[in-house]
Amino acid sequence: MFTIYSRCAHSLSFATVEAEEISGSRPAEVLNLVQGKWVGSSNWNTIADPLNGDSFIKVAEVDETGIQPFIKSLSSCPKHGVHNPFKAPERYLMYGDISTKAAHMLSLPKVSDFFTKLIQRVSPKSYQQAFGEVYVTQKFLENFCGDQVRFLARSFGVPGNHLGQQSHGFRWPYGPVAIITPFNFPLEIPVLQLMGALYMGNKPVLKVDSKVSIVMEQMLRLLHTCGLPAEDVDFINSDGKTMNRLLLEANPRMTLFTGSSRVADKLAVDLKGRVKLEDAGFDWKILGPDVHQEDYIAWVCDQDAYACSGQKCSAQSLLFMHENWSKTSLLSKLKDLAERRKLEDLTIGPVLTCTTGMMLEHKNKLLEIPGSKLLFGGSPLENHSIPPIYGAIKPTAVYVPLEEIMKDKNFDLVTKEIFGPFQVITDYKNSQLSVVLDAVERMHNHLTAAVVSNDPLFLQEVVGNSVNGTTYAGLRARTTGAPQNHWFGPAGDARGAGIGTPEAIKLVWSCHREVIYDFGPVPKDWKTPQST
Predict the structure, then answer these.
(1) Could you give the domains of the chain?
(2) Which residue out of 278, 301, 354, 417 is catalytically annotated?
(3) Which pLDDT score is estimated for 6?
(4) Is 313 a catalytic residue?
(5) Which helix (H) or strand (E) holds 339?
(6) Phi/psi at 62 (5° precision)
(7) Which conformational region is residue 500 in: left (phi greater than 0), alpha (psi within -120 to 50 degrees), or beta?
(8) Where in this chain does the record put each Aldehyde dehydrogenase domain (predicted)?
(9) Burial of 79: CB neighbours in 10 Å, binned 0-12, 13-18, 19+
């Protein structure tokens, strides 16, 4: 049985928690939102503080007996959506206004600091990394102020075959939809996908990983103060089994899933292909033959591999160094940069989906490959209170020879994604570029990539023979840090989702509808023709 809640505000008008006061002695609570009301649950899941193991957040999780209100709410939305170009078009303007107000709110130092510190509490990362997430979200909202939401629904017309006939293409909502997002970006991913769904006229139910869902709960409260109708979004906390049951029974017309490939593939089958996916990323970087700006390249490599403790779907997982780079001090610089990272400022921290043992076991398996060696790291963090359900290792790099990587018995092991501060490094000769390109062709996930070179012919060769959906090319190429101003998403998969841009929103959250107007007049000399 649900309990309806109304909680007093804290120092921010929308907030129901103080980010820095959440602790085992002062646990926060996270509620669900359904049919316009915040509700609790008879089942409270306690979340362990990733830094010390205390039970510091209580999440009202819905079980399979409690999903009917969510099913009813989704079912109330027709397939033609809450709004579309022919229905309630004033809502496009309303969402432009909501975006304007929300962008302003997030630009306020007190509000951005609140969300930055709240992200740090549940998904520990440095202040700058957490703030970057808030900044990108705020800039995204700025991008869709004013008329920009209705511009997403821009139609086109084509002249017909005779007087009075015209065909018009429209972007049409799906109606009831679902959004499932992971722990590593508790604000940016759910806000960008949620708002995209709403802009196009859909009614979403949103599920964020319970470990971090408090961030989005607070953001929804902010959006309500900015004019978001409470009935427009449902927000559910549950385990995976319950969410799967909700999807099967509510039958949303489209589900956006960001997370592991295993769950993504299951959902694609369960939901009969009505999905868009941004799943695992085993992301590569190729350093080309031209050596420039060694210190800068080393710094970017360190950021790509180890910022957020490597817990980015875009994190650098495999670094291919041209032999010219092998002759530099790049590896020693990488080691020095990695060893600067410390738990005190969360430039290294807990890994929320891999235990320490799992990561060290993977390291040991790699070191059994002939010619492999530990470059740095490879041991647990020291002097910490991170609970054993999470991982805690030093930033780690293992060298594996290219010819060994390419062997069938090794390839799957080397290209296994470890969602933590872990990368494989190898090198290649001029004559082996084709082998490197064979390696990237054999990989299963094609999210981000970087080709670090200012040699146009080299760039042309690599980009022309690869597929990753978000590829950075040039001296300053990186794999991580995607802002709001360009597409981010995988390629090479018909199910692939994008995020952040008008193109991504239209692809993921709308479909094409053609309306053919044919008013006449019928020619004066028309006669009934012979049957055909």
Answers:
(1) 63-279+498-513 (3.40.605.10), 284-473 (3.40.309.10)
(2) 278
(3) 44
(4) yes
(5) helix 330-340
(6) -85, 135
(7) left
(8) 110-472
(9) exposed
Residue 280, pLDDT > 80, answer no
Is 294 noted as a catalytic residue in this protein?
Answer: no
Q: Is the pLDDT of residue 186 over 80?
A: yes
- Using DSSP bridges, classify how beta strands 32-34 and 28-30 pair: parallel, antiparallel or unpaired: unpaired
Q: How confident is the model at residue 261 (pLDDT cuts 50, 70, 90)?
A: confident
Per-residue model confidence (pLDDT) at position 9? 41
376-397 tens-digit pLDDT:
999 999 999 999 999 999 999 9
Kindly report the pTM of this predicted structure.
0.96
Structure tokens at 460: 């042309």
Residue 104 CB: number of other CB atoms within 10 A? 15
The residue written with tokens 């409260």 in the block is 221
Q: Evaluate whether 409 touches 452 at the Cβ level (below 8 Å).
A: no
Length of the chain equals 532
What local confidence, expressed as pLDDT, does residue 469 receive? 95
Paired tokens of 458: 């080299």
User: Which of 145, 301, 313, 354 is labelled catalytic?
Assistant: 313
Q: Considering only CA atoms, which of 501, 505, 500, 496 is closest in space to residue 446?
A: 496
Residue of 128, 104, 179, 127 lying closest to 19 (CA atoms): 127
19-31 pLDDT tens trace = 999 999 999 999 9
**Among candidate residues 495, 1, 34, 64, the one with its CA nearest the CA of residue 243:** 64
344 φ, ψ (degrees, to nearest 5): -60, -35
